[in-house]
């Protein structure tokens, strides 16, 4: 079936090598067999097999597509069965009605692998017996578009590079083809070189660039990406013809273009504030199709209502002859389609012309002798240059004729504004050795966004995730980094912003500990000595890796506190009074110790238990709790508060983690019954 031959391997072998015929030439140019699997890709995930997705096809092509050279033919399959090949009346090729299957196994059952043999009856070369081998099921990798998301927002005014996964095991004699056609169109608008071209894509390629200006704006394109693994190649069985067999895989997907670049005619320059776009249609386009595309992207073919607008619109194409087609018969240049048309109800070349927007037709710039309805039904407006492009004016032409450009007008900018980064600078600071995460934000443009650092670099250990804008990682060096970030949207619009990010050194641990409390075990009061003041000694240790400085008496009073609590009864707690040292500041080196003295006054005003202590019935009256508060020094809390209080039990493992993990700590306070520390420090007050 001719259409399917083009879709499968026939289009590949149609130009495999430019086989040069002798003066007489061969009746056949090529003969071929192929098995191919068809897939579709609708998102970034792996392509899926269509149903049915397995095709067998074969054929013999006549020399120079000349009918009458190939008279009849058959293909004998490896199992001995035979299929007929029918001459195609248009080009004389021997065609096979290609067969589709739901599974590979079903295809192989109907058309087994092995050696197939063509028998071809020709007009001048007699009967030709042509064997080709197709065996091994050596199918290539399934083609997978890896920048599928980008392919859904292609700017037609910029080069676009299609990228795919590697052809596993692909070699230079394997073949890759990319074919781009407008939706539902038979002929491609652009495709990669054929096999005979030295610049063809081989099994080692993984990308292909569609140049700027090839694709129309706002259109859907049917794209096929095809991988072919050659199985057999024969140039000797039939001189001046070539035989090829192959296994192939093909992935179809839709590529979508955006509006692309537009130009404003600003009011500040006497314009109307509208936006315009000159479009190159390299394969030709009718006035009707041009207007359809213009409306599909939110615009219309340009309307010209003043001499100033006429000059501005012309300026969009004045310097590029690609927008014009030269007619040497009339020595004139046909330019882009415009938005003027003549409805069929009007007769006479100049009657009833309208703009597609319904605007008043109150300005014209017809060339001399135009409009003239030269070809009859010349009902569409275009620029024309007579005799040169610079001598431009208006021409009426048949709207179904195809020319290679048109101009779109938009009342407002059809492209969203470029994305803008909204995250403020500086960014939140980080700390060496501590995981960092901060996601940059943007607004505007067309998602998805892409993120990159375009100037300088992030702090060591951090990276920017291109797809999300997240700055993540664990910084390794203390620094302040200044860098520039760019955000790009799906329409290739972008903006940049400068950022600053400070990474601080890891915090210095601060660790003070209460080592001990020494208090009188017994206080005796009498009527002659109703009060007694005694010293309570609290010893602390600096377990920070750096020296700690106690700057004055107030800091010391807040740094070490002592609580004297009654054990029972209704008596209030006693108020210790700090014995203030005479010299400040006090520098406490790492692992250094400091003795802090408190005066505690006991009196007969209130005694929780005035009885004398006995061995069998203890009558302790007060207990002591000492606490050290590192934040009194500089506002920074203690890094290891487990040893800030006495009494307390042993630290885990009996060791303090600071400053070096070697200080032993068995606890603080009185002894428990099992010999460990952590019991209350007690004082018994006896009144005689």
Could you walk me through the main structural features you see in this protein, from its secondary elements to its overall organization?
This protein has 4 domains: 2-256, no CATH class; 263-410, Mannose-Binding Protein A, subunit A (Mannose-Binding Protein A, Chain A), CATH 3.10.100; 420-504, Immunoglobulin-like; 512-687, Immunoglobulin-like (Sandwich). Strands 1, 2, 3, 4, 5, 6, 7, 8, 10, 11, 12, 14 and 15 form a 13-stranded mixed β-sheet that branches. The protein is mainly β and 688 residues long. The longest helix is centred in the middle third of the chain and has 10 residues, at 287-296. It is elongated, with a radius of gyration of 45 Å.
């Amino acid at each position: 079936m001719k259409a399917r031959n083009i879709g499968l391997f026939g289009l590949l072998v149609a130009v495999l090598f430019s086989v040069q015929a002798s003066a007489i030439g061969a009746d056949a140019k090529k003969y071929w067999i192929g098995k191919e699997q068809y897939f579709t890709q609708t998102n970034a995930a792996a392509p899926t097999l269509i149903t049915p997705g397995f095709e067998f096809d074969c054929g013999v092509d006549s020399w120079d597509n000349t009918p009458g050279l190939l008279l009849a033919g058959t293909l004998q399959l490896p199992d001995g069965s035979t299929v007929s090949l029918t001459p195609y009346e248009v080009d004389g090729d021997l065609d096979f009605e290609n067969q589709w299957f739901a599974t590979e196994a079903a295809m192989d059952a109907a058309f087994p692998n092995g050696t197939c043999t063509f028998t071809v009856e020709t007009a001048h070369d007699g009967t030709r017996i042509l064997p080709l081998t197709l065996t091994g099921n050596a199918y290539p990798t399934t083609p997978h578009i890896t920048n599928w998301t980008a392919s859904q927002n292609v700017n037609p005014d910029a080069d676009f590079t299609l990228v795919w996964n590697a052809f596993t095991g692909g070699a230079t004699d394997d073949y890759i083809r990319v074919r781009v056609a407008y939706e539902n169109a038979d002929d491609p608008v652009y495709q990669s070189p054929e096999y005979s071209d030295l610049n063809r894509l081989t099994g080692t390629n993984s990308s292909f660039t569609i140049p700027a200006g090839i694709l129309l704006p706002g259109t859907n394109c049917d794209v096929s990406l095809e991988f072919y693994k050659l199985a057999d190649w024969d140039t000797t069985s039939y001189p001046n013809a070539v035989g090829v067999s192959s296994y192939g895989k093909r992935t179809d997907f839709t590529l979508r273009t955006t509006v692309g670049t537009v130009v404003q005619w600003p009011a500040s320059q006497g314009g109307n504030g509208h936006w315009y776009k000159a479009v190159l249609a390299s394969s030709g386009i009718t006035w009707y199709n041009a207007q359809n595309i213009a409306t599909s992207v939110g615009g219309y073919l340009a309307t010209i209502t003043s001499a100033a607008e006429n000059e501005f619109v012309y300026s969009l194409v004045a310097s590029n002859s690609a927008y014009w087609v030269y007619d040497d018969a009339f020595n004139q240049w046909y330019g882009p389609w415009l938005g003027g048309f003549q409805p069929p109800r009007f007769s006479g070349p100049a009657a009833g012309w309208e703009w597609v927007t319904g605007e008043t037709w109150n300005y014209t710039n017809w060339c001399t002798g135009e409009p003239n309805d030269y070809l009859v039904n010349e009902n569409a407006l275009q620029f024309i240059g007579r005799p040169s492009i610079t001598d431009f004016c208006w021409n009426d032409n048949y709207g179904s004729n195809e020319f290679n450009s048109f101009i779109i007008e938009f009342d407002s900018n059809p492209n969203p504004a470029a994305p803008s980064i909204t995250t403020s600078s500086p960014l939140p600071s980080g700390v060496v050795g501590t995981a960092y995460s901060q996601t940059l934000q943007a607004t505007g443009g067309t998602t998805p966004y892409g993120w990159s650092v375009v100037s300088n670099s992030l702090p060591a250990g951090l990276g920017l995730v291109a797809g999300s804008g997240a700055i993540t990682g664990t910084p390794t060096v203390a620094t302040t980094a200044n860098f520039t970030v760019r955000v790009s949207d799906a329409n290739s619009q972008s903006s940049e912003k400068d950022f600053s990010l400070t990474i601080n050194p890891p915090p210095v641990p601060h660790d003070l500990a209460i080592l001990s409390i020494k208090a009188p075990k017994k206080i005796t009061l009498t009527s002659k000595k109703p009060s007694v003041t005694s010293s309570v000694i609290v010893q602390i240790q600096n377990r920070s890796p750096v020296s700690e400085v106690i700057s004055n008496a107030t800091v010391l009073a807040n740094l070490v506190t002592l609580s004297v609590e009654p054990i029972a009864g209704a008596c209030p707690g006693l108020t210790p009074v700090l014995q203030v040292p005479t010299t400040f500041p006090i520098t406490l080196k790492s692992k250094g110790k400091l003795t802090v003295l408190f005066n505690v006054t006991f009196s007969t005003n209130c005694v929780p238990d005035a009885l004398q202590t006995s061995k069998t019935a203890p009558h302790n009256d007060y207990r002591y709790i000492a606490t050290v508060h590192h934040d009194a020094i500089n506002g920074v809390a203690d890094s290891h508060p487990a040893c800030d209080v006495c009494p307390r039990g042993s630290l885990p493992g009996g060791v303090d983690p600071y400053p070096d993990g070697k200080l032993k700590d068995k606890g603080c306070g009185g002894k428990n019954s099992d010999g460990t520390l952590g019991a209350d420090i007690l004082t018994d007050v006896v009144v005689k």
